[in-house]
Design goal:
Blueprint (H helix, E strand, L loop, with lengths): L5 E6 L1 E5 L3 E7 L10 E12 L7 E6 L2 E9 L2 E5 L4 E4 L4 E5 L4 E7 L1 H6 L1 E11 L10 E5 L6 E3 L5 E7 L1 E2 L2 E2 L8 E8 L4 E5 L5 E8 L1 E4 L2 E4 L2 E5 L5 E6 L4 E8 L7 E3 L2 E3 L2 H12 L9
Length: 287
């Protein structure tokens, strides 16, 4: 096995999304538009919200890709125009395949909007290949208890397998694009290694702490892009514990046309998506 080098360290930028919630975003940015097949990585919080101040993303459309929400603290409520509804709390995942188009709402849980509370989590956008962009919308609600965890023999590293597989442990979520999505917790002085196909794009995002990824040193809200020079990712900690996300996937290598909530292959398909949404062909949320 050959450890992949840390090619670039990219600090996350600040952005405001939805009705006004704040995120740290390593991409897309002018310098890093995507990491094929991943279109976006947002780190929400951790942020304490006062009563009546928690904001979310009310009714809005998507087409042509998948949104993956992973919650560490707090809870969100999902509704969409094809009749799905769910609540995701700490450790849970909401995996929505927009496909041909869906209108959805992702809001902090009612009690957090009313009474206040902490929200912390991630949203990842995963592109769909041209052949799958117009498939029917699909929703996967993966509860925390259904996400497998692998603990190393020394008990110093825990890996939550959100997508793909790690060391033979397979995630509950099903993906259209081959990817790996691992949440790795490391004790002080611990090290982690995981096999990844050498042809996949791969990155490590630091949730907290300081880590070494290959020769690169990264801190909270840094993204490390891995070079295509090996078949294994390695992460190590120093004097404090740390948490990271490992994201990797098979590049789709197709043209990408994106505007707001739509990601297609051509400008004409983007225009068609807007026309379909404005004509109501993506439906509406029934309440």
């Amino acid at each position: 096995m050959t450890i992949r080098s840390g090619q670039y360290v990219i600090p996350a930028m600040h952005a405001v999304e939805g009705a006004g919630f704040h995120v740290r975003r390593p991409f897309p940015t002018p310098n890093l538009p995507m990491v094929d097949p991943f279109l976006l990585l947002d780190h929400m919080g951790p942020q304490e919200h006062a009563p009546g101040r928690a904001e979310g993303a009310p009714d809005h459309p998507h087409r042509g890709f998948e949104t993956v929400s992973y919650i560490l603290e707090g809870a969100f409520e999902h509704e969409d125009s094809v009749g799905n509804a769910g609540r995701i709390g700490p450790g849970a995942v909401q995996w929505m395949t927009a496909g041909s188009g869906v209108v959805h709402s992702e809001m902090p849980a009612t009690e957090i909007r009313t009474d206040g509370g902490t929200l912390h989590g991630f949203q990842v956008w995963v592109n769909l290949p041209a052949a799958a962009k117009m498939i029917p919308p699909k929703y996967q609600d993966v509860l925390a208890r259904d996400i497998p965890e692998v603990v190393t023999d020394d008990g110093r590293v825990t890996v939550r397998v959100i997508a793909g597989d790690y060391d033979g442990t397979v995630a509950a979520a099903r993906t259209h694009t081959p990817i790996a999505y691992w949440h790795v917790r490391l004790a002080a002085g611990a090290s982690f290694r995981g096999a990844l196909p050498p042809e996949w794009n791969a990155m490590v995002y630091v949730i907290r702490g300081e880590v070494a990824v290959g020769e690169a040193v990264a801190r909270e809200a840094d993204l490390v892009l891995l070079a295509p020079d090996g078949d294994e990712v390695a992460v190590g900690t120093g004097g404090d514990d740390a948490e990271v996300l490992v994201l990797a996937g098979l590049p789709i290598r197709e043209p990408v046309a994106r505007y707001g909530p739509f990601v297609m292959n051509t400008r004409e398909e983007i225009i068609e998506a807007f026309e379909d949404y404005q004509a109501g062909r993506m439906g509406a949320i029934t309440r």
